[in-house]
Amino acid sequence: MRSGLSEFLPAAATRGLASLVVAILSSSTAFSQVQQDGQLVEPIFRVAHEEAVAQPPQMASRITPPAAQAPLNLELRPGEHPLMPAMRVAQEGLVRIDTTIADYSAMLIKEERINGELMPKEVAFIKVRHQPFAVYMFFLQPHKGRECLYNAGPNNTKGLLVARDCGFKKRLGKFELDPDGRLAMNGQKYPIYKLGVRNLVTELIDVATNDTQFGECEVQTKQSVINGRAATLIEVVHPIPRQNFRFYKAELFIDNELKLPIRYASYMWPEQPGGEPPLEEAYTYVNIKLNNGFTDADFDKENVELFK
Question: How far apart are CA 301 and CA 48, in angstroms?
């Protein structure tokens, strides 16, 4: 599914806060591999624009007991397709995003198989604004220091990707790319304008809408914990390979507190019966912080606080 932050603080941020962030990353199993030369990478924090926000951002609590949260309604109604309860949850989630979440920051962990090859895991701080759509990314792995910025065009038309690489291209400063072009898509399964939880939900709805036209679909739900977050796991399996289906198994973890998808992973059919299904793609959102009050300045390619 579509790819793709903690709020970036000034370079002079206190060591105590930086240490706290490193401690949070260290505590997360998903970040055990975010290392460079055997050491955990300490993230760089920047803020593009600071101004008063009417309400403080909603920061998800570190651990949310499942019993403390209202359960998702995944009851299967008589005679309906097994995917319909998950479809209703996704559609309700989309309405919730559009009415209550203007922006968010998070850590994104992305794994994708392209042309049969599983690409190196990518880890990045992201900032996302829904209207008008905009994305800022700062990579920690594997290209530490790479930055990407995207702003949608008028009426949500396709815009340009602004990038600054961490290698020799850094000397060239920032440069603009077609987000669908060969260079921007190198090592990427989807363009940057498909990144984010809202795009993930809309894609899931599209896939489920297609799958409800067919049988051979097994759906299971259970309570789980991922990266210290209580979540509801929805697992969908298509036991027999068909051209109608995009995957053998899909796992969707919905945060019980935020009611947002925080991990999606899909697997293809095993090569041998009983074998391990190969991972096709996975997107995990960690340390989500909602409604930061991001403005145009946070996604302005001319802002001197970006692309330093």
Answer: 10
Residue 2 lies inside a defined structural domain of this protein: no
Structure tokens belonging to residue 10: 């000034």
**What is the predicted pLDDT for the residue at 305?**
77
Q: Looking at the predicted structure, is the pLDDT value of residue 31 above 80?
A: no
Please tell me the predicted confidence (pLDDT) of residue 304.
Answer: 76
Residue 149 lies in a domain: no
Report the pLDDT averaged over residues 35-53.
Answer: 40
Q: In 3D, which of 36, 69, 293, 31 has the Cα closest to residue 144?
A: 36
What is the span of the domain harbouring residue 201? 66-99+196-288
Burial of residue 156, with CB atoms counted within 10 A of its CB: 0-12 exposed, 13-18 middle, 19 or more buried: exposed
User: d(Cα 136, Cα 176) in Å, to the nearest integer?
Assistant: 14
Contacts of 243 (CB under 8 A, 6+ apart): none
Q: Is 224 a member of any domain?
A: yes
| Contacts of residue 143, Cβ cutoff 8 Å, sequence gap at least 6 | 165, 166, 167
CA neighbours within 13 Å on the CB side: how many for 249?
13
Angstrom distance (rounded) from CA 205 to CA 219: 15
Classify 238 as helix, strand or coil.
Answer: coil
Helix (H) or strand (E) holding 86: helix 84-100
User: Looking at the 3D structure of the chain, how many domains does it have?
Assistant: 1
| CA-to-CA dists, residue 17 to 8, 125, 127, angstroms | 12, 16, 19
Ramachandran angles phi, psi of 87, nearest 5°: -60, -45
Between 125 and 68, whose confidence is greater? 125
